[in-house]
Please model this.
Amino acid sequence: MPTVILVDASLSMTRPVSLDGSEEFQRKNLAVHGLNMLFEHMASNYRLEFTALMAFSSLWELLVPFTRDYNALQEALGSLEDYDKTCIESALHGVSNVVQQEWGSSCPCQMVLVTDGSLGIGKGSLRHALQNLKHRGDDKKFPLPFPFPTKLFIMCVANAEELQMTDAMDNLEELLRLSGGDGQIFTLDGPLCMKSVQAMFGRLIDHAYSPFHAVLHCGNLSSDVQVFPRPEPVLVDEEVEPIPRTVSPDLEIVGFVEIADISSPPVISRHLVLPVAVNKDVDEVGTGATDELEEEPSASQMAGKSPNFCVLLHGSLKVEGMIALVQLGPEWFGMLYSQADSKKKSNLMMSLFEPGPEPLPWLGKISFLGPISEAAENPYGEDDSKSPFPVQPSVKRSYAQNVTVWIKASGLQTDVQKILRNARKLPDKTQTFYKELNRLRKAALAFGFWELLKGVADLLERECTMLPDSAHPDAAFQLSHAAQQLKLASTGDSQYADFNHTIVPMHTDFSS
Model:
């Protein structure tokens, strides 16, 4: 998950801070110290993640585009210049442009806004922007929420008391709400000093940048792994009192399935899985297309070149064209698979399914799956000519029936015209005419669309009056009969508007 660091470079960040009688520091120096702490942590634990550095005042500037070179980020931070007044809105527009140009609108992104809580003055200030949200046109729309999923973390180089003396905290909370509410505001605990800044950025690291360590098990084999980005807790909406489900640190492989049988399943999120014993002196290689598509270190890059089950699993899945079903927790599953981002580089990925015993209906319940050796005969056939999937349900699903749905007026018009075309070909199309008529009748009754029945009845009576002299006599009788039945159903009377009732052709002396 890429990160954008947005640093306030306005004049208010140059306000002096006295540190225990020593030399004076500026708030900007405290912010730089905290960000250096964050960069050092990410260089050690999130080396494969991409980070961009931006500065803003009345204008914004991209100091360092998305990179894994944290030395370049720290160097740019050390040469940060001072500018003029604060204008957060223009900086947010800049973030939106930079992220969409690099990652598009589907890739989730984390944004860390570092400021002193000063919102600017007059037009262009955050306060002024939020007060005029309802009076903006589409051409001057506020940049939040971003068109891509975002987590916004606001790091204030100020304590809560200072922010509450003005409306700064209220405006920052409104900014967080507009971004989607998925984030947090951090303030200093205690006086403005290096120790307080370290504690504040430490809380950010624990909340958003702590690595997820797990152990991957498969029978008697196991491997310590690290998952990027950290899996988020998931809420199951169907539960009465939903409790967030978290991925277990013990990941258990329960079986293997061919890629063709798994197809393209719906997933909650995707994550990169790496062995933890990676040689940190490995040179940086490649640039992933998404935050999850990063390169897996090869076996020669493993510390000590020791055998590792994770590397073995990745190579096996890649060669055999299979995926591994992995249990993430009680009745929660995912899959491990090899995915390539270039001709030579590939990576071990983990996708999380929706929680539940049957996340992929065509596989049936995961607990019912078993090894081929336990089957009476090979379910794939001797020549792989067949497959046991998809598993057929015991009852036919309701959505598998032919259901009439009118979403647009054109669909309804088509159904009415089909009835009229068959009406003009009576008595040759009697069966087709009544079939389409009953289909429309049932749909109208299901929707409570009584006026439609009355309208079609009037159309049939009109067709009856317009029959040519050469028309078969039975056509007039059938049209009059059908129109009368529709009129009775349009009254809503249960005697005539029974949903299961079927209009049958009128028996006449002309029938053969």
Notes: Confidence is low (pLDDT under 50) at residues 278-304.
